[in-house]
Design brief:
The complex is a heterodimer of chains A (113) and B (113). Chain A is an all-beta fold. Chain B is built from no helices and 11 strands. Chain B is globular. Chain B starts with a strand and ends with a strand. The model of chain B has no long low-confidence stretch (mean pLDDT 93). Classes of the chains: A mainly beta (113), B mainly beta (113). Chains A and B meet through strand 5 and strand 10 of A and strand 4, strand 5, strand 9 and strand 10 of B.
């Protein structure tokens, strides 16, 4: 079955700097890759997603890149702010988001003021 | 707009008791997913249901766990004869249909004493 590896497990950056989180997946049939942000005591919230026919997608300070050949995708957060501190999860799915998501292990991002 | 609702938010059970977790999807959503999150880990898919049908239960333990999504009312995840290893956060997500974003609820945190 699909396996998603996520690195690093923890990341600490200075406010205003950029943060990058990377994921690799094993199943070449995967075609949908969302990123979720989870704050303490809350459920995951979708922040950006990318489908396999696109190499890059950007939404304000957040961007995701996908390399299907290498089977990896990355989350980039620029101009980080204290409210970006949270746990971030990548996920992969074989379908267009409709069925089961396979999650990475998570990255705890801390923004230092 | 009400998002995904889960109750109870916290549930304490003694070993051998039954746990019932309820999930009300976003209004109009007919697809429900259950995921389990162990401490410091990513979410693991358990089951995917549509109204009155189980579509994919490949992540459900073979014994003691069951799920339903009746024509009327919330989706229920039922754990019989709970053991300490069942202690985790259980998240429900819903989507409008094939290809739809999965919206997550706040989770139910189950503690087995």
């Amino acid at each position: 079955g699909e396996n998603v590896e996520q690195h690093p497990s923890t990341l600490s950056v200075q406010e205003g700097d950029s943060a990058v989180i990377k994921c690799t997946y094993s199943d070449s049939a995967s075609n949908y890759f969302p990123w979720y942000k989870q704050e303490l005591g809350k459920g995951p919230q979708l922040i950006i997603d990318i489908r396999s026919n696109v190499g890059e997608k950007k939404d304000q300070r957040i961007a995701v890149t996908l390399n299907k050949t290498a089977k990896h995708f990355s989350l980039h957060i620029t101009e980080t702010q204290p409210e970006d501190s949270a746990v971030y999860f990548c996920a992969a799915s074989k379908y267009q988001g409709a069925q089961k998501l396979v999650f990475g292990q998570g990255t705890r991002l801390t923004i230092n003021p | 707009n009400a998002g995904v609702m889960q109750n109870p938010r916290h549930l304490v059970r003694r070993r051998g008791q039954e746990a019932r977790l309820r999930c009300s999807p976003v209004k109009g959503h007919s697809h429900v997913y259950w995921y389990r999150q162990l401490p410091e880990e990513g979410l693991k898919f358990m089951v995917y249901l549509q109204k009155e049908n189980i579509i994919d239960e490949s992540g459900m333990p073979k014994e003691r766990f069951s799920a339903e999504f009746p024509k009327e009312g919330p989706s229920i995840l039922r754990i019989q004869q709970v053991v300490r290893g069942d202690s985790a956060a259980y998240f429900c997500a819903s989507s409008a249909g094939t290809g739809g974003e999965q919206f997550f609820g706040p989770g139910t945190r189950l503690t087995v004493l």
